[in-house]
Specification:
Blueprint: E1 2-7, H1 10-22, E2 29-33, E3 37-40, E4 47-52, H2 57-65, H3 70-83, E5 91-99, E6 102-111, E7 117-118, H4 128-144, E8 148-149, E9 157-161, E10 167-171, E11 177-178, H5 184-188, H6 198-209, H7 215-246
Antiparallel strand pairs: 1-5, 2-3, 3-4, 4-6, 5-6, 7-9, 8-11, 9-10
Helix pairs in contact: 4-6, 6-7
């Protein structure tokens, strides 16, 4: 078996060796379980481990021979983000096991952030207007830097008050990213799923547009992107319900 790994210090070496030989332990506290598993190591200064689901035969070969595994991309993207001045949990290690050219178990390890919230239901906060203003400025910075996060959704954007009335942001689940993107429409696609409601998105759109050279046109574009995405989701949901009703 071949093992790909990236480590940056002795702590990373130890956790990488443990994952390589034993994977997740019973003492690791699972905080999310789905296609992937996210767990925290035991102790007062826990590390966050993302265990990616083992891909099927075809995807396993693709990730083992042609595409960079997700764990490796997460580590590399985190490093690049931090170099550009954007916060994401500090990367610690990435470990990928390959057998006969096929990707098996893979893990990404980073520092654990405490005291942060995600954007789910953010519109219900009494300070949402300030949060939207800060988020708009943050998205402007991301776009100006050419950073495009494909999974720019409520659960992957963490925030916390900075003590001055503004907010800090940190990105997680970052294995699907592109850098040096200058395609305006591509970057604007980030508005499709960043908030829950049309009312909240309208506030964010107004704040974002106010920082752009053509505010009115930008605001219309943002709202149109959101409406078109919601329409696609509505169609998909009703198609699924129709198919289920036919069975």
């Amino acid at each position: 078996m071949k093992v790909l790994k990236i480590v940056n210090d002795s702590i990373a070496e130890a956790i990488a060796a443990r994952l390589e030989s034993h994977g997740l332990l019973e003492s690791d506290r699972v905080i999310y379980r789905g296609r992937n598993i996210v767990a925290l190591t035991d102790g007062s200064d826990p590390l966050c481990i993302k265990s990616f689901g083992v891909p099927g035969a075809v995807k396993g070969i693709i990730y083992g021979t042609m595409r960079r595994p997700k764990a490796m991309r997460a580590f590399e993207n985190a490093t690049r983000l931090r170099e550009l001045g954007f916060d994401t949990p500090e990367p610690v290690a990435a470990v990928c096991q390959l057998s006969a050219g096929r990707l098996g178990h893979s893990y990404y390890v980073c520092r654990y952030l405490e005291g942060w919230s995600d954007l789910r239901s953010a519109e219900k906060r009494p300070d949402f207007a300030n949060l939207a203003r800060s988020l708009a400025a943050y998205m402007n910075r991301l776009h100006a830097a050419g950073v495009f996060m494909k999974d720019f959704t409520q659960g992957n954007i963490l925030f916390r008050p900075d003590g001055t009335g503004d907010f800090q942001f940190s990105l997680i689940d970052i294995n699907r990213m592109e850098f040096d993107v200058r395609d305006h429409r591509k970057l604007m696609a980030n508005f499709g799923a960043v908030l829950d409601t049309a009312e909240g998105l309208a506030v964010l759109a107004h704040e974002y547009a106010a920082l752009q050279p053509e505010p009115e046109a930008t605001e219309r574009e943002v709202l149109d992107i959101y409406r078109r995405r919601q329409a696609r989701l509505w169609r998909k949901r009703h198609i699924k319900e129709f198919i289920r009703g036919k069975k």
